[in-house]
């Protein structure tokens, strides 16, 4: 496809998406949907598109020349994986609804028809006219199904992570808790392990709360993907509720009091022994 034809094709797809009166442009590259990053960032309230794009992996983004406002411009595009990454980092409550719209309505329609057709518009199908056309269409469907299966396998960790995080909006990470308490993260982990609040379970589950503290509503575990030399593995991350932060704070205060009390006793005993020696 020549650059001119490619430009025309992309221009035709620029206004194909409309989510709650906001435009989200998409283009197909080798039958894969790529979203205009600026549109997605605006909808998800990422104020700086460039900063958001920097966080994505290299295979989740690319630049493409598009015809915008009468000019050819370089724009950032993101694939499905990049889209999920941006949704994950969005603080907007509607992000979950947007993700469901993408995964349940838009993407299935694109994969089935090669374009987005909303539910209130009739789909138009071209029936094969010859045996050869029917056979070619069957082969294309088989290849497409294989590709979709591979895509689902690749995207499942991010989808699972997104769904987990959407249910943990009132929880904090241990990093956040450590900062709020003005303790180092490693120091806090060590303190909680020493006090039998957390324990070491395995290489990828190092600071897991005991079940009784989970049952009390102090902590929650979520599955997160972790890149290792052996590939992508699922690990567990400990999140802390507001109730859990209060519990940790009280535990630290008690520890500091006991430490101060013990030091005070030592000083008294030391002074007493010294005075007795002087006498």
Automatic annotation (TrEMBL):
Source superkingdom: Bacteria
Molecular function as annotated in GO: DNA binding
Domain Bro-N: 10-114
Name used for this protein in its record: Toxin-antitoxin system, toxin component, Bro family protein
Organism (species): Brevibacillus gelatini
């Amino acid at each position: 496809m020549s650059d001119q034809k490619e430009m025309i094709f992309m221009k035709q797809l620029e206004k194909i998406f409309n989510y709650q009166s906001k435009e989200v442009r998409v283009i197909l590259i080798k039958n894969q949907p790529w979203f205009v990053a600026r549109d997605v960032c605006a909808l998800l309230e990422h104020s700086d598109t460039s900063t958001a794009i920097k966080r994505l992996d290299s295979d989740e983004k690319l630049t493409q020349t598009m015809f915008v406002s009468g000019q050819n411009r370089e724009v950032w595009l993101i694939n499905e994986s990049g889209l999920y990454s941006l949704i994950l980092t969005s603080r907007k409550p509607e992000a979950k609804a947007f993700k469901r719209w993408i995964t349940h309505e838009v993407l299935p329609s694109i994969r089935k028809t090669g374009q987005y057709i909303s539910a209130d518009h009739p789909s138009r199908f071209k029936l094969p006219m010859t045996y050869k056309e029917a056979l070619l269409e069957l082969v294309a469907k088989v290849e497409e199904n294989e590709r979709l299966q591979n895509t689902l396998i690749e995207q499942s960790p991010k989808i699972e992570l997104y769904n987990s995080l959407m249910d943990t909006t009132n929880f904090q990470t241990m990093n956040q808790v450590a900062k709020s308490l003005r303790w180092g993260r490693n120091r806090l982990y060590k303190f909680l392990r020493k006090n039998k609040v957390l324990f070491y379970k395995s290489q990828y589950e190092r600071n897991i709360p005991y079940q009784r503290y989970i049952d009390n509503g102090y902590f929650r575990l979520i599955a997160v993907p972790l890149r290792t030399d052996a590939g992508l593995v699922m690990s567990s991350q400990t999140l802390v509720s507001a109730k859990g932060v209060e519990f940790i704070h009280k535990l630290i205060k008690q520890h500091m009091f006991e430490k101060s009390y013990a030091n005070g006793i030592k000083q008294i005993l030391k002074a007493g022994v010294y005075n007795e020696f002087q006498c």
